[in-house]
């Protein structure tokens, strides 16, 4: 090891590998285009040659390295049983300092991975790596060269060796384990790292220096950062193993309903940094955490896939026994010493460990006597650490109250960071963090360190506490945990409570539940990933629930069964329930010409003869009056019904405008859209607004109910748009931040049919449900728009609703429109309006058909001589000149509308429910780049390099000048032109890269070095993005946006959308399809795999994400079991027979038929003699009488457009030989029911009896 490096205690190592479909055995992927998961790594994403790799798919790597796949540089062959060479230049070969560097050969040893500890090679703001400072390494900033540009990476050979020797010196062959992990896989969309293999390090290779030619004396030298780490994993199960993910994926493909998630081994969330940045040290405690989970996962494989899983579990058990001994009882000793105030706490802990085992023994010993010894006599420490301890530290330790010492020793039992230990041991810091608890309480219940810390950005994880209190029995026997901290039993009440809290937090974050039935909770705690298990029961809860306060509160289901809820949601419920008081309050007085206001907002009166438009305006006028009069209201309706028009009409009223209007939205994208339409009324995101009232924590993204004074009282009207995205936390924090006495109108606006919020609850849907259940009709506070005014353009039916709108209604959770099932027929014939369908089978077929549709679209209005590539770039905001497209920020035309740049970037959009794979967003974006962005890449790769016109590609997607991109995080931006005070970019904003471009007017020094993006939501402004926005680990601020996930598209609108629907696809839900089908303004092209009518299955309530959420916001949850899942009864409609139908009226009809003993089918296809199909609500086939009866329930016969569509359907029935029962007996009779004038169940029953001859 080079002088200045440091020998550290033994560590384990994590090594990042790309996903591979041939087991990392030294072969090119079987399906390179299908593997988009490996593209998350920059050195693959921006260098993979898709065409070449496809031409050699499945072939062995060339051992001599003449040509290798991109993954060869990213450890894509760590299981290969042969060596191969790889040659590469230095990344800065064009810099004058590196002119003498030559291509260097690196030999990859058999069964090894070339590990690179990127985090260790990153310099801080002061030029020193964080690890060098923390470990007091001999790093010299004076040796680092001046490159002429900023670089965060260590450059000089000696400094590199100081860092690399220290890192690799801690990896001991035969002692250290190696954990291979992948960042992205086809197994799951879960963002956690996936462990693909575990083995033992067998050898650490020597360092490699770059090759030079004609190098002057004392010139620049550098090391290759990679070193081979050989491992013990072989095919099968021996000294380590690979997880059988290929076999698992094959099993899942043959069993579409199979959930692979429980069989995936993830790196622990609390050890995220140990599984990041290429390669990192993994501590004994972190390794134990992985192996404990691995034991559980491997156990599941025993009943699923063939393999010697018994040997795998035995290997894991043996390693756990060894690692617990190495870990000892105090893995957090260094952090605890740092909390005490000693500098170099980690190094002191290492030194104490060496002294503790100076006799060579490996038994488990208590380090605290040695700590006391070195505090008294620092000379026992290594020379470079003697200065870390002095008489002040010795006196401090000697004077500590026994309780304070006990707390420090307790914290040392947990592997936590120095900051975490300091926050919990230093009373003043604990108070500043808002953790109001005494030392004695922490000692009495160490799990408080998780419970009270869990909403912080650097929270202490529960598993870290649990492993400290329940270590291996040998560790516990050697160094027992003293009372009152000790937990003598696995079902200790303190442990059980913490696990219940964790289960409820996970349920809220990942499933959207705000409470859980006790039965579910017991099961989740019993199966929690902890060792030993915590087998609580309902009886256990009854015995210990008095100790659950204040974190937990008991609730009930509608059936009276016990349920439990986090106290946080008890508070949010109480705040939101105050909306009931508003609903019952006095109505606002005032008379206005409501219809006239709507006409003014729409630019004039409706055309004569347009009955549908008149009905739509009547509906809007009624809704406008309700918004004005109600103290709490919701405005709901699908896209195209005119919600924005209605709001503008409301804001035009003097009483409203003069009282002040506050516009809020849950996302930055929604805020900007609202601001564009609201004129001079200022709009804010919830985060922006709540931050000023300390109800939002930007570090954690948490929305807080504080009940603190200092509320907003300057606005009489508060409008929250896109309210379907609101979580309970967000809505409650907003209500807590506004002075209720000053707010005269609270209006929630949105479409409840869209996807539920990302987070806990579904308050918008629950508020709507509350309003609908009122006794009065129409319901107070409910302003609903139902008539969509996106016209068909059909001259024969000028008021017809477009078919894309009709199709979306199938997935709205409501009874379909009278004409909704006609759309399937028109889609099949290719005669639909506003939507076209394209069937596909397989990735290649999809790409061919998508290319045809996309090319046709982008070429629709361009010169035939223009190339497809240029037409593509012009279609998204580029400007053509001399046959090439150039990209500039948008400019105003003669009418004041902005054109080009970001103004055109949302003209069309590809949408897919999935990210990964050839047909997912990642694969489609890469495919688009490969087809349409070839020429611009030449500008970035020009040789000689000074001819380069644009910045080099950024990130693993190789983002370039002219690319369509999406911003991935919320936050302030400082590189903005023109300068804007507090410039802010929101997650989800879509833009076009309009710079930098080195043209004849280029005035800056040097070459283009960054991306300049104009976003569609902030036209006229360019935001700069540079290297710091694109990390080595693949976590980036910008992403390509030619294709987006449907989730990302929520809240956006595009001119034309191309929607990809795979079949099967576990991610598809009713709300997801509805959202996908309502993002377009002009047309949607729906690419469906398999039979188009298979999508009908997704329209049922059993495919609703919203209905699966458990909430007790306004009433106790009433659970309905169906198909192995549970649904909220108020959001589904179940018949006596147990089937799910679309409305309460249909439940009544179904139960009536069942009660009469009449056999029926629900929504079964009825085929006419000409082969056309419709879907009556009920079909009754009476074998005894030979009678056949079709029943249609007509829910909106008070609307002219609905009546018109029903008349067409009724005619179809007549043409098919179906006659209304009122006209006498027929072979097939048609019975219609309606709600106009009320639902007359008795009359309907009499009609059924008569029609069936009962």
From TrEMBL:
Domain AAA+ ATPase: 629-774
Coiled coil: none
InterPro entries: AAA+_ATPase, Coronavir_polyprotein_1ab, P-loop_NTPase, UvrD-like_helicase_C
Keyword tags: ATP-binding, Nucleotide-binding
Cross-referenced Gene3D superfamilies: P-loop containing nucleotide triphosphate hydrolases
Pfam families, per the entry: AAA_30, UvrD_C_2
PANTHER family, alphabetized: DNA HELICASE B (PTHR43788:SF6), DNA2/NAM7 HELICASE FAMILY MEMBER (PTHR43788)
Protein name: AAA family ATPase
